[in-house]
Amino acid sequence: MIQRWQQYCEKFLTITPREKYMIVAVGFVIVTFLPFTLFVEPTLLQVNKHKQQISKLKQANGNSRSLINDMELKLAQDPNLTVKREIAQYEQNIAAVDEQLLALTSELIDPVAMRSALVSLLNMHRGVSLLSFEVKPAQPLVLTQITNESEQSTTSQHSGLYKHEISLRLKGKYFVLRDYLQELESLKWKFFWQSFDYQLVEYPNGELAVTLYSLSTQKEFLGV
Question: Per the CB 3.0–4.6 Å rule, which of 177, 194, 196, 206 could disulfide with 211?
């Protein structure tokens, strides 16, 4: 081994200076990069591998947190929220209908007030005689709706209102009766005409048969 080393040294002394510089440079490179290759490079590769694993773990952790947030949000929501919203909407609709019904019935004349108003009007109007006054039993106001247009089937539903009919038979001159009817129409309450029949009995007097009705939430028709 020592002999071979001496042979290398003798051969090194015989080469040119340029070749000596080249050999020294190659040796320097080998001495410098050999430790890097043996020790540093594997460590760097391991570090890069760990960085990639850490990045993957962070991404998986972010996805898991997103799923957890979605699940917590769903759990926080009321499963009956849709049903409660529909019920609230129905309640609003019912309240609106009740308000309209209240406004309607507040403008309508109730049975007691109608009879009192008619009697008072007859007493105040000269030339009009009351021959008969009839109050018919209250009838529920039924709403009819077509449920199947092809079969023309219908369903009936009580509206919550009652129809109170009053039949009057009056006697007087034509223009006096006309003025009386105009006064009826000018009353502050609302009522509806159902039938109207005028006959000239003995000039200048005639008889007028009128049937009108009011709508009310009260079924009972109280007397005056």
Answer: 194
Distance (Å, whole) CA 115 – CA 191:
12
Q: What is the C-alpha to C-alpha distance for residues 217 and 98, in angstroms, rounded to an integer?
A: 12
Whole-model pTM: value is 0.46
For 57-113, give the DSSP string: HHHHHHHHHHHHHHHHHHHHS-TTHHHHHHHHHHHHHHHHHHHHHHHHHHHBPPHHH
CA distance 172 to 147: 49
pLDDT in tens, 28-63: 555 555 555 555 455 556 656 656 766 776 676 677
**Residue 107 burial by Cβ neighbours in a 10 Å radius (0-12, 13-18, 19+):** exposed
> How far is it, in rounded angstroms, from Cα 94 to Cα 185?
32
Amino acid at 67: L
Q: Which residues of the chain have pLDDT under 70?
A: 1-51, 53-54, 57-58, 60-61, 72, 74-79, 97-98, 100-112, 114-115, 117-124, 143-159, 189, 220-224
Residue type, 54: I
